[in-house]
Amino acid sequence: MKHPPRSITMSRVQPILSIRNLSKTYAGGFEALKDVSLDIETGEIFALLGPNGAGKTTLISIVCGLVNPTNGTAEVDGYDIIRHYRQTRFRIGLVPQELPVEAFETVFKTVSFSRGLFGKPADPAYVEKVLRSLSLWEKKDDKIIALSGGMKRRVLIAKALAHEPTLLFLDEPTAGVDVELRKDMWNVVESLREEGCTVILTTHYIEEAEQLADRVGVINHGELILVEDKQTLMREMGKKQLFLHLQSELDSVPTGLAGYDLELAADGRELVYTYDTRGERTGITALLADLNGAGIHFNDLRTSQSSLEEIFVDLVHKAEAT
């Protein structure tokens, strides 16, 4: 049975992107998207998560006018993506996972050319601003072929920003780059939002979504499982655990503590208590009292909350089981 995705209440301001009942069936009958509906608010960073083949790239390709939908509609800033193709495409910037760039052209000319493709007048000052924001200005006269993989990725972003879009799609923006460059590019994404650009990104790095996103969407087998505010998602669905480092080793959890969700770890030197963060009471106070009553003492304790990655994996497994 199909369930509509959970979602936070949207504002009354017209969303920059509004998707309604979008579906895509390819030749041969493969359903890449199944009745997807989604609103993206102006100025937010939205992370779309899902395993390979989940439908992320198909969804982006439809909105960007690269693939035609089988059913449904999508509007960008109030313009229909099919009936008003020019108006919508003008407002969109796309950074795909892989795209050949002009290997023997310079960075500055490549980005300037991309601006001209959208009918924008030449504006060297704006191109300079984009290149500086991406730490590319010192490479402006370098040929693309001479750049590192990370710098080429930055050039793709600069090309997508050249015509001053208000909605930017980043499809796996930091795939294949090192950790240092990845974090540097996170700063770039956040600065884009500060300048008024709405950003939608797909990523395999859950840490990336956890760091950047205001809201998270989870898609699997073409269906949008959930759309939720990131903090609300982690608070409502995340499990919290209390780790108690014991003074004395235990062979098993005492039967008198069977009412608690307890596990032994670290070869009997640690008790792990899992509880629901949504509950009015955590049960920790009662647990500590019962531990003391059972003669079980501990040297140290710590807590840990589920990461977005754990929540994501749990959601996908639950969706596959239904």
- How many DSSP E strands? 14
Globular, elongated, flat, extended or rod-shaped: what is the shape?
elongated
CATH architecture of the largest domain: 3-Layer(aba) Sandwich
Q: Helical residue percent?
A: 25-40%
Give the tags:
322 residues; alpha/beta; six-stranded mixed beta sheet; 14 strands
SSE layout and pairing:
Layout: E1 17-25, E2 31-40, E3 45-49, H1 56-63, E4 71-76, E5 79-80, H2 85-91, E6 92-95, H3 107-117, H4 124-133, H5 149-161, E7 167-171, H6 179-194, E8 198-202, H7 206-212, E9 215-220, E10 223-229, H8 230-237, E11 239-246, E12 262-265, E13 270-276, H9 284-293, E14 298-305, H10 308-321
Parallel strand pairs: 3-8, 3-9, 6-7, 7-8
Antiparallel strand pairs: 1-2, 1-4, 4-5, 9-10, 11-13, 11-14, 12-13
Helix pairs in contact: 3-5
Short description:
The chain has 322 residues and is α/β, with parallel strands linked by helices. The protein has helices spanning 56-63, 85-91, 107-117, 124-133, 149-161, 179-194, 206-212, 230-237, 284-293, 308-321, and strands spanning 17-25, 31-40, 45-49, 71-76, 79-80, 92-95, 167-171, 198-202, 215-220, 223-229, 239-246, 262-265, 270-276, 298-305.
Report on this model:
With 322 residues, the protein is an alpha/beta fold. It folds into two domains: 17-234, Rossmann fold; 239-305, Alpha-Beta Plaits (2-Layer Sandwich). 32% of the residues lie in helices and 27% in strands. The chain has ten helices and 14 strands. Strand 7 (167-171), helix 6 and strand 8 form a beta-alpha-beta unit.
